[in-house]
Amino acid sequence: MSASAPEDDGLERVEIAANRLVDLHGLEFGSDIRKLSESYADLDIRSIPAEVDAISLGLIGHPPLPRPRIILNSSKFPRQGAAQYLVRRYRFTLAHELGHVQLPWHTGINVCHSEGDEELDSPSISSYEQEAHHFARRILVPQRALSRALDECSKSEVLNLLDEAAVHFSVALRSLIELLPPGHVISAVRNGAIERSYRSDHTGPRPPVPGMPIEDAGLDALACERIEGQIGGRKIVWWSFPSVIEFDSVLSDVKIKELWRQLLDSLDLGGRRDSLRSSADGKFSTTMGLVRKGALPFTAEVIATHVLQNVGSEPKLREIYNHPDFRRYVYARARKAEDKGE
Ligand SMILES: [Zn+2]
User: pTM of the full predicted structure?
Assistant: First the structure.
């Protein structure tokens, strides 16, 4: 085994190692990570100064040990009756250390700090730390178990299972969103405001931004389904969007540019007119870019739906979106794009 991980296939190797462990131990949501760790390393709980959560010492490199060792900082260790978020954070720390022990190129001593929240940690951590985080996420939220749940369970049940995984909501929701097809937005809500949002690839609507009151998210009217649940003490809202909506197919002699100009003229946009027009036009470019990449099917209905959802989810474009002719304009323009095959 090579001593260093090439950057480009590092995460692929992490995936393989994590999936092997998941299969070997039949890991599901909420598995006993302590027991699992103890089958690969000696666990040692002791006081470590500073903000360190844990230290792992592997078999390769210094110091030489008969068995890998994971030292957990006793001041971060959740006592009986500790708050849920501390328990979740501790599970992530332990799974992260197990990653260092399991990934053969993570040699020597690793000194680690983690909030148990991948996104909060990520900007400042090394590639080894990112790999151990990725490993932790894969064993705490096993992809195969999650895929099976998506096939067999309702969305509410999927959220319940993810809560049982006992991880920070970001670990659960990142795992979920990457398995979903286009057309899903999921937000974590705290005290009535959006804390973070996630969107599956190539989804039309924009995710609501952090800090926005949930009632201003404006996605309910665009969604075909809205589910609420709880993960790690956060309210979770999961919107699903149709890939195609119905359009009035009677479009004879629609002069597209004229329709667009009249539509904009009839709204009292003042000095915002040009920037809103180019912002709305930009949505067509975004959608057509995805169509050209093959990420979306090249049909007028799909293009128009995607553009409408994108425009409809942007608060500053709401007047345009709500104009009675906008839908007709979008569909006519999408039809023209399809006819031209551009
Ligand atoms: Zn680490």
Answer: 0.89
